[in-house]
User: Fold this.
Amino acid sequence: MLVTPVSYTLAVGAAEGPTPMNAFDNALLAAGIGNVNLMKVSSILPPGANYVDAFQIPPGSLVPVAYCSVTSGIPGERIAAAVAVGVSRDSFGVIMEYEGKGTREEAEAEVARMLEVAFEQRQMKLDKVRLRGVDFQVKTLGSVVAAAVLWY
Amino acid sequence: MLVTPVSYTLAVGAAEGPTPMNAFDNALLAAGIGNVNLMKVSSILPPGANYVDAFQIPPGSLVPVAYCSVTSGIPGERIAAAVAVGVSRDSFGVIMEYEGKGTREEAEAEVARMLEVAFEQRQMKLDKVRLRGVDFQVKTLGSVVAAAVLWY
Amino acid sequence: MLVTPVSYTLAVGAAEGPTPMNAFDNALLAAGIGNVNLMKVSSILPPGANYVDAFQIPPGSLVPVAYCSVTSGIPGERIAAAVAVGVSRDSFGVIMEYEGKGTREEAEAEVARMLEVAFEQRQMKLDKVRLRGVDFQVKTLGSVVAAAVLWY
Assistant:
């Protein structure tokens, strides 16, 4: 089997770019995760995984990550993304992501609500939440990203 | 290289939820794959992989999976998803997924047809098909998922 | 951690198919990557990775790949995809993908421009570019794919 990650961090970023993919790439760079190979996963924190403030991951590494992103070419529009990790003591955790139009506060409130639902559904106690959000007012073409990065 | 999976199962689920991501999460839980880190792959059964009825996979594991899903917020709408695995003796297999509006039977017929095309295209004989589908009539916000889970 | 790939190739393909997923599957077969489990990553070439003309990858292997694809059911429409890998001596590289309507030349020009932006943003010197594109005029239902395949 593939080795299960043992630690995690949260990262958010926002940026402009001349093309949608460049805007997304720049948002990843702003989040500090632009130089690795993100492998999207859905969306569980392995039991006992440790939180760290930031990783130093070698460029090009294959990095499991739960993330969301939104890119907009509508000048003046505010876009937002948020990610939340909920932890249940002595068990695994759940990761939720939300992206859309609106403010950081709205995205954070939404993802917090989603996380509560996820724990209710699993009949697990939500002991601790870590949450990060970002918003950005588009000038020409902008992108936001919010990620829970899993690592070793 | 990453270790190639050696076994597989099929899983389907359907559920309501208060947000699209929660509906999807609940459908994954209903399918029995809600507490792992699904890594989407396209879409080949490794040669010699064994079918098992269900896996006991540790929470948070990185799990290669070919899956499809559809989420709808249109009350009364029927949504469906199906996955089919075709096996050719002494060779690898092919996985096909289909999601859309309609019934389980329609989704299963469609994915079976897609699998036949995939084998014709490869000039391989289709010796055996395993297929699972699911449908769901949306109350408020519903999601269905059909998955071929690859494991070790 | 997951083992970082050490080599790469570029692959493009185009094909018709009776369903969108079959058209995509046929395009992958035309590109020579239809019988493996593609794991989508974004989108960095590990430092020192070697270019090879083509891989012989065992069927069903888990293969990290940066790719783009577009499928169209509009007869007569021309669709295109391109992938570019930029290398900076003594450092990692960056992979960019572009898909859309239009010609191969347009897609290649666009992805080349995106790659330049990505290097400017990183304040890295773009020493060498490898680039492949493909286009296809849809008969009934067609698909194109362009991929940077990472391997070991």
Remarks:
- The beta strands of chain C are 7-16, 37-42, 44-45, 50-51, 62-72, 78-87, 93-101, 128-137, 142-151.
- Chain C touches chain A through 31 residues (CB under 8 Å).
